[in-house]
Amino acid sequence: MMEPAVPEHEYLRAQKKFPSVWCAGCGIGIVLGAIIRAVRALSLSKDEVAMISGIGCTGRMPVYVDFNTMHTTHGRALPFATGLKLARPDMKVMVVMGDGDALAIGGNHFIHAARRNIELTAIVVNNSIYGMTGGQLSPTTPFGAKATTAPYGQIEQAFDIAKIAEAAGASFVARSTTYHAIELDRLIARGIEKKGFSVIEVLSNCPLFYGRLNEMGDAVEMLKWFRDNTTAAPGKVASGKIVRGVLVDRDLTGYVESYRKLTAASKKRGGA
Amino acid sequence: MGNSPTTARRPKKARLMQGNLAIAEGALAAGLGFFASYPITPANEIAIFLSRALPKRGAIFIQMEDEIASLAAVIGASVGGLKAATATSGPGFSLMQEHIGYAAAVEIPCVIIDVQRAGPSTGRPGSPAQGDVMQARWGTHGDHPIIVLCPGSVQEAYELTIHAFNLSEQYRTPVILLADEVLARMWERVELPLAQVEVLGRLHPEVPPEWYFPYDDALGDVPPLVPFGQGYRYHLTGLFHDKSGFPTERLDEIDTWQQRLFGKIEGKVEQIARIEEEEMEDAEIAIIAYGSTARSARHAMKLAREENRAVGLLRLVTLWPFHDKAIERVASSVKRIIVAEMNRGQILLEVERVAKGRADVVGVNRADGAMVTPAQIMAALEVEG
């Protein structure tokens, strides 16, 4: 067989599912490319990888990729993935969510997945808005920013996804953007390899809604904004820039590992 | 001489057992591999028992953050190949509705145990009701098929739990075991089957991965669902989907899927739905009841028979799909049907629908968290239709 001209194509479902549902200028395709390159770099087989999603633009990601894929309900991808991971601890289970999916309707599940520190890789594509339903405000819409349901500006504070994940107990937390695709590949690969719950937040561009409503320009302008307003050097935090890179990396026992030990211990005890 | 001493004294596995524990034991006998739930009265004993029993078997127990997550985890584990169940009561059952629809549409086998308590809202948490009958049928949005079983004794709670798992695998569907507080928390003699109970496993396709589609009607009315991670990579979605599992907007593909989805259950009512008749041969009045209310109904029937009145009992073991033909037969053969239930008349509506005026249909109802008494049913016998 010929080598595909683009290595990512080997992992995509070619027969039926293209073009994608995503708008021109959307950042989600960049994230999908990074996930595929991370899986490829780790030499994982397609059979051992599962990708679970909820609802929204990011929720449509699994249909395009040739893994074991499941598009679930709004906000609930993490508990679905929790059941799958416990049933098949040998599989690498990735969960892809948007900011509304992961932090609003699914916020409680996000906190508890992190608290449990279950061996899942959660990739949160954060475009600060609900794209699929028409540009409504999300829990990561910055204070003052506009959305179709915040025409006078958002008056709630935005969640810091990484800080929530850290406080709730995740083993690994990282942040990058759709501008920094190569960096993103590496961070996702590290997240997949990490034992315990790993979270990779990806700041992403929604030029159609977030960009237009907040006069940020087109997709390229939004990518440039990510370049100019983020930093991978922690020393520059004082500059007010958003920090990229690995934010938390700690060795904690994951839930599957703890459950395995509990099972072994329970078998030694008598009774029913 | 008769039986040898060893045969005569063969130990029967008879035990005094609580309804909730019988459900849990039934689930274990059916091969339960995964249980997720959230604490709620009056279903708690199931999770407390399974949290101890499952790890010893190498199976999984997890307490989730709510009932929505519980059923999600159950569906995820079933996709991973395990027999999976959750248990709850009214408020939690309400929260599970979206995922019951997901399991029905995506065709994921799982068992949902609902120990009904008086509602709506918080209601009377420790008191019985049968107010979830229509919620079990129609609680999730959109038309969908569902199987709902309703045990009438602790012994039957054990047996029907096993049956619920079998049906969920056989028809690749969620199955709801609709118990009630009285049945779940009473203690009763249970004889565990001495012979090995029939336990059905997951169906497997006879085709290789490249020929497999998870919704392909060429593989039968119930195409096998291959667990994730076995080389049969495919897509699952709650969107309307084609035979491969991919989302579709094509009406011809949607029609093919819906015909099969509804047909696999609604086209097999006679095979799926169980009813039990007592003293119906000469009955002029039939009492229709289910769950613990059927026990009051049976007592009322016996009292009536002592007075030489021709009263029989038809007990619904399967509530959904509704056994229209059985009710039609009864409506054609008796003068009056009394439908006794701990709600404001949910199955009553179904009986009236099927009877079509062929017999008088009278409801005996209460929804205050107390049982329907035999005296209430006896009083209904007296009313002239």
Describe the structure.
- The complex is a heterodimer of chains A (about 270) and B (about 375).
- With about 270 residues, chain A is of the alpha/beta class.
- Chain A has one domain (about 10-270): Rossmann fold.
- Chain A has helices at about 30-40, 75-85, 100-105, 105-115, 160-170, 180-195, 205-215, 220-230, 255-270; strands at about 50-55, 70, 90-100, 120-125, 130, 135, 170-175, 200-205, 230, 240-245, 245-250.
- Chain A has a 7-stranded mixed β-sheet, sandwiched between helices. Chain A has a two-stranded antiparallel sheet with strand order 5-6.
- In chain A, a hairpin with a 5-residue loop joins strand 5 (about 130) and strand 6.
- The longest helix of chain A has 14 residues, at about 30-40.
- Chain B has about 375 residues and is an alpha/beta fold.
- Chain B folds into 3 domains: about 5-200, Rossmann fold (3-Layer(aba) Sandwich), CATH 3.40.50.970; about 210-270, no CATH class; about 275-380, Rossmann fold.
- Chain B is about 40% helix and about 20% strand.
- Chain B contains 15 helices and 16 strands.
- Chain B has helices at about 5-10, 20-30, 45-55, 65-80, 90-95, 95-105, 135-140, 155-170, 180-185, 250-265, 270, 295-305, 325-335, 345-355, 375-380, and strands at about 15-20, 35, 60-65, 85-90, 110-120, 125-130, 145-150, 175-180, 185-190, 235, 275-280, 285-290, 310-315, 320, 335-340, 360-365.
- In chain B, strands 2, 3, 4, 5, 6, 7, 8 and 14 form an 8-stranded mixed β-sheet that branches.
- In chain B, strand 12 (about 285-290), helix 12 (about 295-305) and strand 13 form a beta-alpha-beta unit.
- In chain B, helix 2 runs parallel beside helix 8 (about 155-170) and helix 12 packs across helix 15.
- The longest helix of chain B is centred in the middle third of the chain and has 18 residues, at about 155-170.
- At the A-B interface, strand 2, helix 2, helix 4 and helix 9 of A face helix 3, helix 4, helix 6 and strand 10 of B.
- Strand 2 (about 70) of chain A pairs parallel with strand 10 (about 235) of chain B.
